[in-house]
Structures are given as C-alpha cells and as structure tokens.
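sry for the spam today, last one i promise. struct tokens for design, 244 residues
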C-alpha cells in the first residue's frame, strides 16, 4: 500500500517515468498536500483508503499512460529531425558527448595499459589496471584519513564528519561564487536566459573534439594541480613531524 501511494503521488504530480524532470528546486512538495490530491482523485467512495477496485483503476490508468507514451525508438527518430518539437530536447545523432568521452577514455586506458599494443586488454593487462586503480584508491583513502581523522583512531567520528561537511559546504559556496562571478554578467545574483544560453554554448564547445592547444593547456593545469597537491602533502608532513 505504501509503495502504491508513493507511486500514485508521483502520477498526481505529473512525475511519470516518461516525463522529463524539471531542474531541482529548493522547495520540496508538501507530502500531506500531495496525499490529499491523490486521495481526492482516486478515493472514489471517500472512505479515506483505497479498496481493490480503486487500486485496479489506478493501475489501469498507469497502464494506459505507458501505452500512450512514445517508445524510445520514436523519440530517437523524432530527435533526428532538426525542426521537430522534440529535437531541442535530444542530442542530434553524433552529438552524444558521453559517447565521445567514452571513446576518449577508452583511448587513454589502452594507451596506458595495453602493453603489447594489440588494441585490447588481455587478462594480465586487466589485472595490472585493477592493481593500479586499487593502489590509487588506497592512496586517496590514506590522504583522506590523514586530512580528516584528527584524533588518528582510524575512523571518522561525528565531530570529524561535522568539520568535514563544514569544509565541503564552504568549498561549495566558494565554487558557487566563482561560477556566478564568471557567468552572471549583469550581476543581479541570478542567471537569465541569455546567461544560461552562453553557459550551454561554452559547455558544448568543451565537449567538442579537444584541439592540441586545449590538450596542452589541460596537461599544464593538471601538472600545476599535482605539484600544488605535492607541496601541500609535504607541508602537512613537516607540520605533523614538528608536532610530534
């Protein structure tokens, strides 16, 4: 019954499986209000609960909605037509940047781990890759604990979690300020349609095939970040040694 209620509330709010989600909002829908709307719609005999006939009616309505919804194949075909209403809501064929990045990632992995250069990873190469990733994860965990496990007991207690969350919240706020400083051109504290359009255009450009100069810049920035991280680790080690 609880599951049915939750699913039905989603239907009342128009949040179907085939619907496109709106941008997240700070305001959450009132649960009691949703429940009232749902019961007003489906509790036909007004007894405050759903009987079998009412549940059956709900399932029938959902089945009808699924049947009327466009299949994925039709949506893709619709998206191919530039002037179609749904084209703007879908990437055009060949524009799927996630495919592009998947191919880029595959190239990087093969370049790094395909020792015999046969264009694929054998079991030995896969094992080497997994070992390298496990080592990297262990290093990240070690750095994480060195930074946040203040009492060095090998775990993160509530006070340490609180300090960690406070730091992350501060960092998120700083990033938000940087973001708004960059894209809020008229400095009104929000993004209008023109500003959003400019952001989308810039991000779309980033997802294009990287050019040599862009790759060079990214490598330089990555090197700078790594050197900064190494300096930070050395300074922290010196400080910890001095405290001991």
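last one done:
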């Amino acid at each position: 019954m609880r599951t049915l209620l939750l699913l039905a509330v989603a239907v009342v709010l128009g949040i179907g499986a085939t619907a496109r989600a709106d941008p997240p909002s700070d305001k959450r829908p009132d649960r009691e209000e949703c429940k009232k709307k749902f019961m007003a719609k489906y509790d036909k005999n007004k007894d405050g609960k759903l009987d079998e006939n009412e549940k059956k009616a709900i399932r029938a309505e959902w089945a009808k909605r699924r049947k009327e919804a466009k299949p994925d194949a039709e949506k893709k075909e619709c998206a191919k037509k530039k002037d179609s209403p749904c084209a703007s809501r879908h990437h055009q064929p060949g524009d799927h940047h996630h495919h592009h990045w998947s191919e880029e990632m595959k190239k990087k992995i093969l370049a790094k781990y395909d020792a015999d250069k046969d264009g694929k990873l054998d079991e030995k190469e896969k094992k080497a890759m997994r070992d390298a990733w496990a080592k990297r994860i262990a290093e990240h965990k070690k750095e994480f604990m060195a930074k946040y496990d203040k009492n060095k007991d090998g775990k993160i207690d509530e006070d340490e979690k609180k300090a960690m969350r406070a730091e992350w919240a501060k960092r998120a706020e700083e990033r938000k300020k940087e973001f708004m400083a960059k894209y809020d051109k008229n400095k009104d504290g929000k993004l209008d349609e023109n500003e959003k359009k400019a952001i989308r255009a810039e991000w779309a450009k980033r997802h294009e095939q990287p050019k040599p100069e862009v790759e060079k810049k990214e490598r330089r920035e990555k090197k700078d970040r790594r050197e900064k991280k190494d300096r930070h680790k050395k300074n922290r080690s010196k400080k910890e040694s001095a405290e001991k």
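Residues 2-89 form one domain. ok im logging off now
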